[in-house]
Amino acid sequence: MNKSKKIKRAAVETGLHDKKKDKIVSSKVLTIASIVFVIILVGALVFDQFYESTYLKVDGKNYHLKDLSYYIYSVEYQYDYYDQMFGGNGTYWNMSADESGATMRDIAKEEAIETALYNEVLYNEAIAEGYSLTDEEKATIDTNADKMMESLTDAIIDQSNFTKEYLSDVLGKTALVTRYRQDKVDALDIDDEGITAGISRDEFRQYDIEYLFASKKTTDAEGKSVDKTEDEKTKAKDALNTYYEQAKTTEDWSKIIPADDETVSYTTDNFIASDTTFDDEFEAQIMAMENGAIGEVQETESGYYAIRMIDNDSSESYDKAVEDAITAAENEGFTAVYEEILAKHEYKINQTALNSLSMGSITLAK
Fold first, then answer.
1. Which of 121, 159, 198, 212 is most buried per CB count within 10 Å?
2. For 290, which DSSP code?
3. Structural domains counted in the chain
């Protein structure tokens, strides 16, 4: 454009007007304009293709990226938390998941799509069976959608195209599916009593304890765990013995150790006989303690302990074992129900389109 103006201005100043040059310039301008238009058009098509590609189709409805953003965000948020534990540099995302070469990104993507399929199919089935949200559920969904919009950063909201209307819709589907699934589970012929009877109470007998501890280990300049010197070990044991004398006449052990003490620590813990870090001899001594009893200071390979028994017959581990076993039976039973329901619905997962998505930054603003 600038070149064109210069040529025309020069022609006016000299009193000459070369029409052939005008045609050449016009031709160049049109050519450049056409190229720019094509680039913009292609860019727009690529942009639209990314956001408007159909990644999932259920019962005739196409699901684009914006329709699946909640499911993707939920999985990305969870997996990114694990990645942060590995340093937050993508180590967990890129970790090999199995022998096939799939990475955690691949597993996360599959999980997000399968969750979306699960939710949408069961929602359609629930609606077909006459289910609808109650007024109480609607109120809860409205509140939760507001809370979620408030908790998310502007960057994530923009990147995920989240709106309160969208979140309310997907949270509503999830609530209805949850109630529908529970009704189906309740109708399953699961022998809760038989499952409970098949789990040994003695095997899962739990011991709840609290203790004061002084370690024989320390950390060197490179962050490695190394043995303390004999003098340091003696000082650690002496410090523990001092607190131990206080502990024998103190009800609340959590207040014995000053916050700035780096030698002795206070801990509450629990274990069952088949799952403990204590050596066999020390474990046997602890298990023989009566409730409320305070043991003598004991030396182990790792350090020095002063232990008080809180509950030597807690049912917590047993109750959880029973609950987990019943839940496993329910999940297995409902999986069969879901497979039957899924077979009644038409669906298609567009793997080709999904290949263009890289989990970890689809909805999470980096």
1. 212
2. P
3. 3
